[in-house]
Write a structure and sequence with these properties.
alpha/beta; globular; two-stranded antiparallel ribbon; 7 strands; 39% helix; 193 residues
Length: 193
C-alpha cells in the first residue's frame, strides 16, 4: 500500500520562523508555505538564533537554543523530505570569517546528512531600505552555499520583501501581512525553480 502521508518539511530559523508577530501559527510564513506545498510542517525555529548565533531564555524561551549548526543532528535524525532554512539577520555581529565558515559548513553537512532531501535556503530579511554591507554579505554567502549543494535559494533582500510595502513593517513590528509577503516570495521562488 502506497504511503499517502504528506512529506515532512523541517523549518530551521529565527524569530520570523517561529512566527513572531503573527496572530496565530496559521498566519506564520512557514505554515502558509507548508500548506501551499502540501508538506507536513515540523517547525524548529528558535528566536535569536542564526548560523553561528546561539540564544538564551530572553530570545528563545529556553535556557539555551543552539545555532543552526548545533541543530544539524536533530534535523538529520528526523530525516525529512524537505528542509527550509531561513535567517542570518542575527549573525550580523559575528566575526565575518567565522560566520562565512559556519554557513558553508552548515549547508555542506546538511547535504551530506540528507543527500536526497529538497533543501530551501531563505536568505535574511531586513526592515531597512538599505540592509547594509554586512547583511548583504551574509545573503551572498547563503546564496553561494545553497548553490554549491543544489539547494533552492530565496532572496528576501532584492527587492526587499518587507520594505516594498511600508504597511508590512511598522515601528519594527512584523505582523500577518509581513508573514504573508515572506510566504509569497518563498512560494513564487519554489514555483519558478
Amino acid at each position: 500500500m502506497a504511503d499517502t502521508r504528506p512529506p515532512v518539511a523541517v523549518f530551521i530559523g529565527d524569530s520570523y520562523t517561529v512566527g513572531v508577530g503573527a496572530v496565530d501559527h496559521t498566519k506564520r510564513w512557514t505554515t502558509m508555505v507548508a500548506a501551499s506545498q502540501g508538506w507536513q510542517e515540523d517547525n524548529l525555529g528558535r528566536g535569536g538564533t542564526g548560523y553561528l548565533t546561539e540564544a538564551g531564555v530572553k530570545a528563545c524561551g529556553s535556557a539555551h537554543c543552539p545555532n543552526y549548526l548545533g541543530m544539524l543532528a536533530q534535523v538529520i535524525t528526523i530525516n525529512p523530505s524537505v528542509v527550509v532554512v531561513a535567517g542570518g539577520l542575527n549573525d550580523q555581529l559575528q566575526d565575518p570569517e567565522r560566520e562565512k565558515i559556519a554557513i558553508e559548513t552548515f549547508y555542506r553537512d546538511l547535504r551530506k546528512g540528507l543527500p536526497s532531501a529538497q533543501i530551501v535556503a531563505v536568505g535574511p530579511s531586513s526592515s531597512s531600505r538599505d540592509p547594509g554591507r554586512r547583511l548583504a554579505a551574509i545573503n551572498n554567502e547563503v546564496r553561494g552555499s545553497a548553490a554549491a549543494i543544489g539547494a533552492v535559494y530565496v532572496n528576501l533582500l532584492a527587492p526587499s520583501v518587507i520594505t516594498t510595502d511600508p504597511a508590512l513593517m511598522t515601528k519594527s513590528k512584523i505582523g500577518n501581512a509581513t508573514h504573508a509577503a515572506i510566504a509569497g516570495r518563498v512560494e513564487d521562488t519554489l514555483e519558478n525553480k
